[in-house]
Write a structure and sequence with these properties.
Blueprint: E1 2-6, H1 10-22, E2 29-33, H2 36-46, E3 50-53, H3 62-71, E4 78-82, H4 87-96, E5 100-103, H5 108-115
Pfam families: Response_reg
Protein name: Response regulator
Keywords: Phosphoprotein
């Protein structure tokens, strides 16, 4: 399985990748994008099986990326890893087609709870 991790912070991308590995998802191919626009382009080019995206990013936010993907017909499974964990944000994410929203701070158990039904 190929997983696209999108965050404008290189450090946060590394934390997400490390947490994925700690949660037991260490045998997947992980690729990275620095913002929503790059993630949108990489979904078309790299065909990931899952996108884990931050919400707030320059150029194109995570929610804008998800909305653009769905508008273009892309149905790649998409989840947020973000500090935006309010009920309103969760509803907006779900309405846009996100499978889950993992709020920061998180740990490997949080990832397992969100991803066990998504990653086979």
């Amino acid at each position: 399985m190929k997983i696209l991790v999108t965050d404008d912070s290189r450090v946060m991308r590394q934390i997400v990748i490390r947490t994925l590995r700690q949660a037991g998802y260490d045998d997947h191919d992980i690729i990275q994008a620095e913002n929503g626009r790059e993630a949108f382009e990489m979904v078309g080019a790299e065909k990931p099986d899952l996108v884990l995206s931050d919400w707030n990013m320059p150029e194109m936010s995570g929610i804008e990326c998800l909305e653009a993907l769905r508008a273009s017909g892309q149905q790649v499974p998409f989840g947020f890893v973000t500090s935006e964990g309010s009920p309103e944000m969760r509803e907006k994410a779900a309405n846009a087609g996100a499978l889950f929203l993992i709020a920061k701070p998180f740990n490997e158990d949080t990832f397992k709870d969100a991803l066990d039904g998504v990653i086979a």
